[in-house]
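Q: What changes when zinc ion is included in the input?
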Amino acid sequence: MTESRLKSLLDDRSSGAPASRIVRAMSERGALSAAQIARLTGLARSTVSTALSELRNSGIVVEVAGGEDSAKGVGRPATALTLNPEAGTCVGIHIALDEVRLIVADVSHSVISEQIMTLGRDYSPEQAAAITKDAITKAYAENGLPASGLLGVGVSVSGPVSPNGEVQRASIVPTWAGVNIKSVFGPVLERPIFADNESNCAALAEMMWGAAVGYEDFVLFKIDRGVGGAIVSGGRVVAGVAGGAGEFGHVSIQAGGELCRCGNRGCLEVYASFIRPLEQLSRIHGRAMTMDDAILLAEQGDVGARRLIEDTGEVAGRGLGLIGTVLNPPLIIIGGRMALAGDILLTPLVAAYEKHTLIKPRDVGEALRTRITIGKFTENDALLGAVGLVLRDQGRLA
Ligand SMILES: [Zn+2]
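A: The predicted holo structure follows.
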């Protein structure tokens, strides 16, 4: 059976067998050419070739059209291979304030189905687990997928998650504080459970399919109703001992500043999230404004909306300057819904960043400058990244 063979190859982390290394590289990266596999795994071309023909014969690996091998020149098609989409699937879920989103994807990285389950604000974790199980059962039945092929469920949480799966107090979803993700979902779903903070998941999505493809080291900075972030080093998201790494929103930028929801004062999130600008804009326009409204208004030339976005960019850039001074990353990706404002946000943000960080663009050559860019996924990045947790075997809860 290809399903069980794939599972055992993916789980075989210790032996270093070529087939296992190839299968893991394909699970992490999606479609690859034989040459790319050799580069990524460090295996000899002949070893890759032998292992691949065995994997193809046993139905674990299949050929796909449209692959390209950059080593052979742009646009020249090469044979690309992926894991057989029929050999395994994974589920990603995102736990938000009043809804749970779910996505089903296969091991070739194709998204099969997506659902949003709306719940009340005070829904319990147990309700979320039950509704997730029902949604998975329904999605698998509708798409004719065997339940036995489900490799694992990745869970993205709007708050820090400790390595053992416990949601930390600073979470945006209060009913989940102190809850252990594995204890809630494990017994109900009966599959390996993976979990991480939503910004960490977003970084994973950008690294696997978005603006950070090809980067092993970068920072993600998210501006939305909150401010979050992630640090990726050597292709892994830095978790921190209790899961609190990359929480850029709670870097204190003003001593004795206003109280933050986390309990500290003067946090970057207080000044760089878009909640307050929205309140001001709503008051002036006499109706409730969303981030999309604000961006549209700014694009249409509304001076006030534009000013609020620019000011947000400036203070965010100042905070990011601290992060840049500490990490000096090659790439910074701006995520969250405010990133949809594009250059209106980015121009003042980059200027403030360059002003407040140590290494200035004029100090170094092009190749050594930090590139700051808008993320590819600003809406469902966390959800995609939850699938990425399973495919890349990150955040597995033992
Ligand atoms: Zn805070």
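Observations recorded in class: Residues 69-73 have pLDDT under 50 and may be disordered.
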